Structure formats: structure tokens, C-alpha cells
């Protein structure tokens, strides 16, 4: 995987634009406006820190009290995660 310095490509400006999280998402990642890439990283850090991946199927994430309002259900797949989180960004 080439880095941006080696390949000469610039990161997509849309991914680097700071976005403000909703109050629901801010409970998980904090209040500050951060780029979409950082939002995803922080959500995954939270999931790993609280051991919320389903032990039987690691592709599923079990919601705790903070994630349930964000997801709208008790369990989501990692593929749904970005879509659900995006709805909480402005």
C-alpha cells in the first residue's frame, strides 16, 4: 500500500474536512469537529476498548448504552457502521 508521499496522490478533501458530531455521536468520540477518517478511527477505538465485537462473529458489533442510540438497534455489522455514523455528522 503506497502512502500519499510515495504515490504523489493527495488525500480526498471531503474525507479531511472536519465534521461536527451530533450529541449522540459526541457521547462516544467527543465534541470536537474532526475529519471523517478520525471519526471512524475513534468509533473503532471505543468498540475495541469496551470489547463490543461479538465473540461468535467478529464482524458484528454489540451496542452498549452509548452506541444503542447511535445504531438504533442492539447489533450491527461492521459494514453498516460507516453508514450509521455518517448520519450523525454535519
From TrEMBL:
<dbReference type="Pfam" id="PF02201">
    <property type="entry name" value="SWIB"/>
</dbReference>
<feature type="domain" description="DM2">
    <location>
        <begin position="14"/>
        <end position="90"/>
    </location>
</feature>
<dbReference type="GO" id="GO:0016853">
    <property type="term" value="F:isomerase activity"/>
</dbReference>
<dbReference type="InterPro" id="IPR036885">
    <property type="entry name" value="SWIB_MDM2_dom_sf"/>
</dbReference>
<protein>
    <submittedName>
        <fullName>DNA topoisomerase III</fullName>
        <ecNumber>5.99.1.2</ecNumber>
    </submittedName>
</protein>
<dbReference type="InterPro" id="IPR019835">
    <property type="entry name" value="SWIB_domain"/>
</dbReference>
<keyword id="KW-0413">Isomerase</keyword>
<dbReference type="InterPro" id="IPR003121">
    <property type="entry name" value="SWIB_MDM2_domain"/>
</dbReference>
Amino acid at each position: 500500500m503506497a502512502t500519499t508521499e510515495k504515490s504523489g496522490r493527495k488525500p480526498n478533501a471531503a474525507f479531511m474536512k472536519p465534521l461536527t458530531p451530533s450529541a449522540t455521536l459526541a457521547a462516544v468520540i467527543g465534541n470536537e469537529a474532526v475529519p471523517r477518517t478520525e471519526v471512524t478511527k475513534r468509533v473503532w477505538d471505543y468498540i475495541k476498548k469496551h470489547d463490543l465485537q461479538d465473540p461468535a462473529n467478529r464482524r458484528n458489533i454489540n451496542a452498549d448504552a452509548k452506541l444503542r442510540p447511535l445504531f438504533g438497534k442492539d447489533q450491527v455489522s461492521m459494514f453498516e457502521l460507516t453508514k450509521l455514523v455518517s448520519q450523525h455528522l454535519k
